[in-house]
Write a structure and sequence with these properties.
The complex is a heterodimer of chains A (293) and B (167). Chain A is built from 13 helices and 14 strands. By secondary structure, chain A is of the alpha+beta class. In chain A, the strands form 4 sheets. In chain A, strands 4-5-10-6-7 form a 5-stranded antiparallel β-sheet. In chain A, α2 (37-42) links the parallel β2 and β3. Chain A is globular. Chain A starts with 6 loop residues before the first strand and ends with a helix. Chain B has 2 domains: 4-81, Ubiquitin-like (UB roll), CATH 3.10.20.30; 90-162, [2Fe-2S]-binding domain (DNA polymerase, domain 1). Chain B contains 5 helices and 5 strands, in the order ββαβββαααα. Chain B has a 5-stranded mixed β-sheet, with helices on both faces. Chain B is globular, with a radius of gyration of 16 Å. The N and C termini of chain B lie far apart (53 Å). Classes of the chains: A alpha+beta (293), B alpha+beta (167). Chains A and B meet through α2 and α6 of A and β4 of B.
Chain lengths: 293, 167
């Protein structure tokens, strides 16, 4: 439906935006790409008195790739990420996950910071931020603070962002070239939200055993999260078809999917197991069709 | 409280200076204020793609954009895809030839999406075209004829791209 009655202002600098946010308090909502906020307004789930448009702040947009890792300005769009010539090499898991975010038209306006602030439980970006131990740089009236992903993402639609703060940057740790990874997602239609997805990565030691495994999933009722049980299973092991199959079983036992008109919980649980299995198989070059035979 | 803010923008080559209401989506602004009713409003929350327009070269959902956010933008709507004399443009002709529409409600959004895609990616594969069209809902055609029409029109965009690199 039509939007609720709302005022609009477009600051030119981050400082000006922070000042406006402080003076308007809870009456204000930030808008950048608007691809999550506009539907919320249209459904009248939110009724802020004023929208502060940070879409003009060039300082918040951009991708910076260094030996220390990948830094995304909060206003970087999905298309910026998709079209970047070297991001895929610098952080293949991030690039693979972002390829599943939303549809063409939305990808032109939707931003990394906006997705993270919105923190939809089935969105790809918050899940990747969590899985990769990224850091979130946040600006407030008293300057900047840096939060670990696990301290920032608190649950579905819930983050540690205060009402007077703006996400400035998301910073991913360096990605070793030899790192193994996999990303698998199942959605009813390309670009739709995930019904289930798995993002995994690990390194190998000299004996080809798994070091520091990270297993993140989308599709749990509590939102995106790491599966410590599966990580414990993989740690120190050689990646074999049998281990991958066991990881699928442990995944099914570890997650608590919700139930809705699209699928019952049992279906989602099985689907999640398959996503983890496929992502792990892809990371290790295991052909599941042959492994099953 | 909503209020009017003055914006200037270029739509289909025409400059406009207009007072836009702060609570108005860009889709409604195009239809109600500029009387460009070719842009259709379907779901009003970013799912159907009927309201797709091209803003600064990028296809966007005009229902997920506020009118004041279009300040300074260069915009192409469905009205801008026809020839200057009002006859059908090449993409539109291909749609007619292949019967790529039935009720026509989704068609403006699909044409603007395809135009933006082929302008940016004249070599877009059929798979890429199908992926991009996942953002536009058509309940009549089953998409097969839409894909056929876009693939045929793609040749024209390829020639245009080659001609511009050659010159």
């Amino acid at each position: 439906m039509k939007l609720p009655d709302v005022d609009y202002i477009r600051p030119k600098t981050l400082k000006e935006a922070l000042g406006l946010l402080s003076s308007h308090g809870d009456d204000a909502k930030l808008i950048a790409g608007g691809q999550s906020l506009m539907p919320m307004l249209a459904f009248r789930l939110l009724a802020p008195k004023i929208l502060i448009d940070i879409g003009g702040l060039a300082e918040l947009r951009g991708i910076d790739i260094k030996d220390t890792g990948v830094r995304l300005g909060a206003r970087t769009t999905w298309h910026d990420i998709e079209r970047h010539p070297s991001l895929k090499a610098a952080h293949p898991l991030l690039a693979a996950a972002i390829a599943h975010v939303a549809h063409y038209q939305i990808r032109n306006r939707g931003t990394a910071g906006g997705s993270l602030a919105h923190c939809d439980p089935v969105a790809e970006f918050p899940a990747i931020v969590l899985t990769c131990d990224a850091e979130v740089v946040v600006a407030g009236p008293d300057g900047e603070r840096v939060l670990a992903a696990s301290d920032f993402v608190l649950g579905p639609m819930t983050t540690a962002l205060e009402a007077d703060e703006i996400i400035v940057q998301i910073s991913f740790p360096a990605w070793p070239k030899a790192r193994r990874w996999g990303f698998e997602e199942f959605a009813r239609r390309r670009g739709d939200f995930a019904m289930a997805a798995a993002a995994i990565f690990y390194d190998l030691d000299g004996d080809q055993c798994v070091v520091d495994p990270h297993v993140g999933v989308i599709g749990d009722a509590d939102g995106a999260r790491r599966l410590a049980e599966v990580e414990d299973l993989l740690r120190g092991q050689k990646m074999t078809p049998a281990l991958v199959a066991e990881a699928r079983t442990v995944t099914e036992q570890s997650i608590h999917p919700s139930e809705d008109i699209h699928a019952p919980a049992a279906y989602r649980r099985a689907l999640m197991g398959v996503m983890v299995e496929r992502a792990l198989a892809a990371s290790a070059g295991i052909d599941l069709s042959k492994a099953a035979a | 409280m909503s209020r009017k803010v003055d914006i200037t923008l270029t739509v289909n080559g025409q400059p406009h200076a207009h007072a836009a209401d702060t609570r108005t989506t860009f889709a409604d602004f195009l239809r109600d204020d500029l009387r460009l009713t070719g842009t259709h409003v379907g779901c009003e929350h970013g799912v159907c793609g009927a309201c797709t327009v091209i803003v600064d070269g990028e296809a966007v959902r005009s229902c997920l954009m506020l009118a004041p956010q279009a300040d300074g933008a260069t915009v192409v709507t469905i009205e801008g895809l026809s020839e200057p004399d009002g006859s059908l443009g090449p993409l539109q002709r291909a749609f007619r030839k292949h019967h790529a529409l039935q009720c026509g409600f989704c068609t403006p959004g699909i044409l603007t999406t395809a135009h933006a895609l082929l302008t940016q990616e004249p070599d877009a594969s059929e798979e890429r075209i199908r992926e991009v069209l996942s953002g536009n809902i058509c309940r009549c055609t089953g998409y097969v004829t839409i894909i056929q029409a876009i693939l045929e029109a793609r040749e024209g965009y390829r020639h245009a791209a080659n001609a511009s690199t050659a010159s």
